[in-house]
Amino acid sequence: MPTPTDWLKYDRDHIWHPYAAVHSDAPLWAVVGAEGAEIELADGRRLIDGMASWWSVIHGYRHPVLDKALKAQVDRFAHVMFGGLTHEPAVRLAQRLLQIVPDSLHHAFFADSGSVAVEVALKMAIQCWDGRGQPQRKAFLTIRNGYHGDTFGAMSVCDPENGMHTLFQGFLPSQYFAPAPPLRNEPDDGSALEAFEQQLQRHGDEIAAVILEPIVQGAGGMRIYRPEYLREVAALCRRYDTLLILDEIATGFGRTGELFGCHHADVEPDIMCVGKALTGGYMTLAATLVSDEVATDICRSDAGALMHGPTFMANPLACSVALASIDLLLAQDWQARVQTMEQQISHGLAPCRDLPIVRDVRVIGSIGVVELTTNELPPGLQESLVAAGVWIRPFRNLVYIMPPYVIRDEQLPVLTGAIFAVLSNLQSTRGDNPP
Ligand code: PMP
User: Fold this and answer.
1) How many angstroms does the Cα of residue 117 sit away from the middle of ligand 1?
2) Which residues are catalytic?
């Protein structure tokens, strides 16, 4: 029987990992189990999970309610095509989603990943303007430091500097960018919003929609900005008659302390993308939700229909587990839970503020971010965190956590404590060995 050492070797030789080189010598850990907020490694170590598998596993691993929903659907049918057929899991999930998102949204498109949900949103906006007799409106306005996925349309609206624009230049559609709004704890002189409005003034007749992540910009910098900015952006979209797409793929399902990021600002988008925690992180599924007005105008376009239809659209297993995950979330006082996590994370990360290597500590809902003064991650950081018993995957100069909501009160301080310990240790090692 192959041992974990054998798989690791095969993996190294043949399998790509996210944003990785083949034959990379970057550390890689073999997982043999996961339960609650813990990940079990092949060598027997159990790590406390600070990542919820990239924002998605909100109820933790092996949740009995989600396991049951998935098994029950396997016993009915795992998949049928969605062209010309439908099923109860898709219908019930659409009903539930449309009950909990802003009232402006009336129709659901089930996509197979977050990036695809963003592609669908972009297509919807372009087709909507085609239906409205303005087919020249094919560009998008967004803010810097955004992240919307790795497919081409999505990449084109990611931050032009920390995204992949240079690499794919000549192939990526070019879009309009406004400065990122100031962080919530920075002064706001209004210039970011002014620049945003200027883009609408200058290019409004080419712009199909504005797309942004509400309240927290995730992979483009883990930036928390003020609800007022989002409110003003939504008002400007109305004033300049353009559509508003909110990418709630990372912010949805309670993560920021409100059910969706847009609830912080009482903003109602024309199109909204959800994904990640939609299935409680059990499997891939995303959805693009759209207003009745936009949906109607899409169908007036030359195509007469929305031109997208993936093979695994509305996969019944994914829809069943998503419905169970949303019901599980809503059945508990999730907001109180996230607030408690916010307090614990703020308290646990506060000492990091005193470390010279730390530029900023920011917390919202169950997201905690430590931004370092360096441009890159100090070498060995990931290994040190694993050695400290936690699974935290920093990127660029950001060490951040977004644990499963089921993390226990005694586990959360282990995460924040490990960040502090590892960063302080780094500090003292640096002090001992000046560059
Ligand atoms: N939008 C946002 C805001 C995201 O954070 C992500 C994933 N990190 C995506 C879109 C893309 O989702 P996926 O990885 O499922 O394609």
Assistant:
1) 9
2) 19, 147, 247, 276
